[in-house]
Design brief:
The chain is α/β, with parallel strands linked by helices. Among the domains are: about 260 residues, Rossmann fold (3-Layer(aba) Sandwich), CATH 3.40.50; about 35 residues. Strands 5-6-7-3-8-9 form a 6-stranded mixed β-sheet, sandwiched between helices. Strand 1 and strand 2 form a beta hairpin. Helix 4 packs across helix 5 and helix 10 crosses helix 11. The radius of gyration is 35 Å and the shape is elongated.
């Protein structure tokens, strides 16, 4: 059963144009050899748009240009020709990169960090506060099913568990655009279903997802539109309903009928087709079989029954709900805050600095004598303060005795050194 959301075919193009997240026009990338000669046309005159809240699939065989397109969208490569905009800006705009989450095909993680430390490190790269990082880490670990193995180092993880923590790090900054390269690679069927559910839920909350995968069943489950690459060019593009539907065929699903009734129905259908097709073609075009569930549904049902019988596992478990901070309203609030900060920063740069007049006759507020004494009692005493208090009280501390003994030892060592130097000078 497909998880993809229904797309309204009569959607207003004017309104969607205002919500365009990615715009690619005439994009080409040519890799050259040492002598500057064209070596490979990785991407050749590609154009497409991705709208807000859409799951967009990049499909194609190996070497068809998918990964190069992703690197161009991330600003890791410069296009040879063409134009790319992400959120209406250049791909090299620094503030734009903060709104993007990326899961590469191979997760490059620090082996000796555990899950929480890994997410904390990536969260610090986005200047998230410590409290905010901890809240997001807890939610993400629960979401990807790694909360019970959070203290295991990443180097001990299986490939599927590394994909889970990689997906969590791609979402730590609450991105508006999520680019996933083979997100279900190495995952078990449970993890695949959870990741697909997560992708659909992110799109429902206003996130935009670009998915590159060779697993066509996963793409079919979640994507609204896809492009199919071959030889660096787009060979087909459109919604899955447009690309996969067969308008000249019809499928009817119904409960089991009596044999006589079924024969009557088939006879009527074949008689009607016999007027349009040869008799042999009319007989072969009608197929009767029993529907069956797919292997994924059967597998998930078996695992669900095993969990209900209190069976335990030492690996990753089913993730919880989507992290609370990954919400469209929160993202819009962050975007509004970023826009306000950008306007303030630009106005501050353009406007001349105005000196702040000093107020005469005002002094910093001083603490009362009682509060000052209490504060002094709480603060640690310096060695000078401690020695002064001891001298005033007439006490001799062990520290002072040790210092006197040290002075005596230094005096004796100095005398011996003087004798040695004096003897050497006489010689």
């Amino acid at each position: 059963m497909s998880l993809a959301r229904a797309v309204n075919p009569n959607e207003n193009e004017t309104s969607t144009a205002a919500e365009t997240v990615v715009m690619v026009q005439g994009l080409s990338k040519v890799f050259k050899d040492f002598w500057g000669r064209p070596k490979a046309h990785a991407v050749n005159n590609v154009s497409f748009q991705v709208r807000r809240g859409e799951v967009f699939g990049l499909l194609g065989p190996n070497g068809s240009g998918k990964s190069t397109t992703v690197k161009l969208l991330l600003g890791l490569l410069n296009p040879t020709r063409g134009h790319i905009e992400v959120f209406g800006r250049s791909t090299r705009h620094v503030a734009t990169k903060r709104r993007i989450g990326y899961l590469p095909e191979e997760s490059y993680l620090y082996r000796y960090m555990d899950s929480a430390e890994t997410l904390d490190f990536f969260g610090s790269l986005f200047n998230l506060s410590s409290d905010e990082r901890q809240q997001r880490i807890e939610q993400l670990l629960e979401m990807v099913g790694l909360d019970k193995v959070r203290r295991r180092t990443v180097g001990e993880f299986s490939k599927g568990m590394q994909r889970r923590i990689g997906l969590a790090q791609a979402l730590i900054n609450d991105p508006d655009l999520v680019i996933l390269d083979e997100p279900t690679s190495g995952l078990d069927p449970i993890g695949c279903r959870e990741v697909k559910d997560l992708i659909v839920e992110l799109a429902r909350r206003g996130k935009t997802v670009i998915l590159s995968s060779h697993l066509l069943a996963d793409v079919e489950d979640v994507c609204d539109r896809v492009v199919i690459y071959y030889g660096g060019k787009i060979q087909a593009m459109g919604s899955l309903k447009e690309l996969l539907s067969t308008p000249d065929r019809l499928r009817i699903t119904m409960p089991v009928l009596e044999r006589e009734t079924l024969e009557k129905v088939l006879a009527m259908i074949r008689a009607d087709l016999g007027r349009k097709l040869p008799e042999t073609a009319a007989q072969e075009s009608v197929v009767v079989d029993s529907p069956s569930q797919n292997l994924e549904s059967y597998f998930l049902d078996i695992v669900k029954k095993a969990r209900s019988s209190a069976e335990e596992t030492s690996g990753a478990v089913s993730g919880g709900t989507v992290a609370r901070y990954l919400r469209s309203e929160d993202s819009e609030r962050v975007q509004a805050k970023d826009r306000i900060l950008e306007r303030l920063a630009s106005s501050k740069e353009s406007a001349p600095e105005t000196p702040v007049p000093e107020k005469k006759g005002e002094a910093p507020a001083a603490l009362s004598e009682d509060a000052s004494q209490k504060l002094s009692a709480l603060l640690p005493k310096t060695p000078l303060q401690a020695s002064t208090e001891q001298a005033a009280s007439g006490e001799t501390s062990p520290a002072s005795l040790q210092s006197e003994e040290r002075r005596e030892n230094l005096k004796k060592a100095g005398e011996k050194l003087s004798d040695l130097l004096g003897n050497k000078g006489n010689k």
